[in-house]
Amino acid sequence: MNTRYESAKQIYASFGVDTDAAIAKLKSIPVSLHCWQGDDVKGFDTDPTKPLTGGIQTTGNYPGRARTPEELMADMDKVLSLCPGAKKINVHASYAVFEDGEWADRDKLEPKHFKKWVEFAKARGMGLDFNPTFFSHPKANGLTLSHPDPEIRNFWIEHGKACIRISKYFAEETGIPCVMNIWTGDGFKDIPADRMGPRMRYKESIEAILSEPFDFNMVKPCVESKVFGIGVEAYTVGSAEFALSIAAMNKDKCLPLMDNGHYHPTEVVSDKIPALLCFFPEIALHITRPIRWDSDHVVLFDDETKEMAKEIVRTGSIDRVYMALDYFDASINRISAWTVGFRSWQKALLMALCTPNEMLAKLQDEENFTELMVMQEDAKLLPFEDVWAKYCEECGVASGAEWFAEVKKYEKEVLSLR
Ligand code: RNT
Ligand code: ZN
User: Fold this and answer.
1) What pLDDT was estimated at residue 1?
2) Residue of minimum CA distance from atom 2 in ligand 1
């Protein structure tokens, strides 16, 4: 194995790539693991038999879904043990852990309801990210932060503010900045009579949430855009232009978040990353795999995933991009779904770090497009597997599919008993 790595290292060196440095760098890049793959985005604060709302949908009914915080955290631990690299945990507000029969509505959530998550993250030396939950709730019927009824709007503004306070608590407890993402499925199924009204109300609501005091070095509020959702096909309040503009106009307290499932199918987020980095000091990403629409399939090591990682690395922006996974597949073993997605993004980052970016950019600047094509194709066959194997070995995880044996064992011993 080490001989294979030594030989690969030499081949990469001849392209000007330092694989030892690539491996060391990747170990320092935190990637946020979303808690919601483990339980089909159900959370713990509402009736789990009620459907998911907000225009998103999990499909499939593979057995073994996590039903309690304990089950979900145990499942996440299994995933963490199978994945290389630095991790953060991404929690939704609907995953509040209530104790002793206590319950609080979304506008009344407090840091104490997330103590268990802080303990979980701290014990594993990880940071936490957070998301207010503007869906799957009786007051989330079509519109939330953009609702014409001030009472409903205020309820959700109070939820957003509560979530800023919880994000502060996460950052203070872990010492690691907390990315807090605002996404709503607000929109209409059919042709609206007023497109601007809801957007003006959404804008004012987001600004009201951001008026809650926080330190922008430690809490990173984001606004995530979307093109459309299920049952919300005609109009989305938080469109791309809306979300980008609100982030641009509130640059001292908010970042844009791009989810690569949230654009028209021929648009690519890999191209949008360097566009935003020309203007925003920091941006955030939701990494997913859309098939024909925002289907939230498991992230794979596919071309667009690689291209997104490349843009982050070759623009020198690793420290400017907050990366989080966002998908939910209920049709296969959920631990495996989580693990494949996390490992795929790790592979994409490592491959990007092992790409002869400087050499290729030089060819482009010299307008040597013929050689650029030849070298880009050549670089695809570099002995990446050997570098990946070395990285996994150093991180103490399997490099190949041997990890799946662990998942099968866990399914037999734990998941199948649920
Ligand atoms: C939905 C958005 C959003 C959610 C999570 C659960 O289309 O992508 O980010 O997936 O908040
Ligand atoms: Zn998303």
Assistant:
1) 52
2) 183
Structure tokens at 162: 């509560």
DSSP state of 52: P
Query: What local confidence, expressed as pLDDT, does residue 30 receive?
Result: 98
pLDDT value at residue 51: 87
Q: Which two tokens stand for residue 87?
A: 């991790």
- In the chain, which residues have pLDDT < 50? none
Can you tell me the distance from the alpha carbon of 147 to that of 185, in angstroms, rounded to the nearest whole number?
Answer: 12
Pocket of ligand 1 (CB under 6 A): 36, 41, 56, 131, 183, 224, 226, 259, 286, 294, 326
Q: Does residue 406 carry a catalytic annotation?
A: no
Catalytic residue of the set 173, 259, 329, 411: 259
Between helix 384-395 and helix 19-26 the angle, nearest 10°, is 40
Let me know the angle formed at the C-alpha of 160 by 157 and 161, rounded to the nearest 5 degrees.
Answer: 90
DSSP 174-241: HSS-EEEEE----EESS--S-SHHHHHHHHHHHHHHHTS---TTTEEEEEE--S-BTTB-SEESS-HH
Quote the Cα angle for 266-37-270, to 5°. 25
Q: 209 with 159: CB under 8 angstroms?
A: no
Active site residue 215: no
The question of whether 293 is a catalytic residue gets the answer no
Angle of CA points 321, 230, 144, to nearest 5°: 70
List, in sequence order, every residue forming a beta bridge with 220; answer none if it has no partner: 179
- Cα of 403 to ligand 1 centre, how many Å? 28
**Active-site residue, selected from the candidate residues 34, 113, 159, 226:** 226
- Based on the residue annotation, tell me whether 262 is a catalytic residue of this protein: yes
Residue with tokens 């203007």: 279
Residue minimizing CA distance to atom 7 of ligand 1: 56
**Ligand with the closest atom to the CA of 325:** 2
User: What's the whole-model pTM score?
Assistant: 0.97
pLDDT recorded at residue 39: 97
Residue 184 alpha carbon to ligand 1 centre in Å? 8
User: Quick one: pLDDT at residue 101?
Assistant: 87
